[in-house]
Amino acid sequence: MINQVKKYIILVLTAGLIASADQVTKAWVRANIPMGSTWSPFEWLTPYARLVHWYNTGVAFGMFQGINMVFTIMAIIVVIVILAFFPRVPASDWYLRLALGLQLGGAIGNLIDRIFVGHVTDFISISTFPVFNIADAGITTGVAVLLLGVWIQERQLKKQILDQGEVHPLMESPPPEKPA
To answer: In 10 A of CB 138, how many CB atoms?
Structure first.
């Protein structure tokens, strides 16, 4: 049992932090900013960054509006898949472990909104970028961390192969000869 808890600790902590921060900020926005209104602590900042109380029944960037139930089911599936896959991720692959924690936290944060509010509350507005929330930022950051991890691992593998002087299927041509 303790081994199972250890396997999930980074996932639970990361996802819990993202989902909690997401829900606390959304609750504050719903309680303090009327729907469709904007709030900015500094007038000069308003054209660049502000809080806007908005909602979304679709997915990121306002795409596919009006099919909240489909995305609720998809979010539940994503949560289940992450929870099932996570124990198989080696402890040394912290990029993937962190990425899954961020994505799980974001999925849970938006899933809570879909189930209990009926739509996802969005509120962060930066310049002309679509309005988003902390859960969306967690999901997006998780994807970025995942891609960065894959890129770093690929570079490490190529370096290891070059250092060993072997031809590998991932390489297009053999490595150059090492000087003696």
So the answer is: 27
Quote the CA–CA distance of 38 and 109 in Å, as a whole number.
22
**Is 163 marked active-site?**
no
Query: Domain extents for the chain?
Result: 2-143
CA torsion 8-9-13-16 (nearest 10°) is: 40
22, 93, 122, 163: the catalytic one is 122
Chain segment 13-42, per-residue pLDDT in tens = 999 999 999 999 999 999 999 999 999 988
Mean pLDDT of 55-79: 81
What the block records as the tokens of 7 is 């396997």
Contact 102, 138 (CB under 8 A): yes
98 Cβ neighbours under 8 A, 6+ residues apart: 10, 14, 142, 145
Is 122 catalytic? The answer is yes
Question: Which residues, in sequence order, are bridge partners of residue 126?
Answer: 49
User: pLDDT for 131-145, tens place per residue?
Assistant: 999 999 999 999 999
| Inter-residue contact 93 to 117 (CB < 8 Å) | no
Q: Report the C-alpha gap between 144 and 95 in whole angstroms.
A: 10
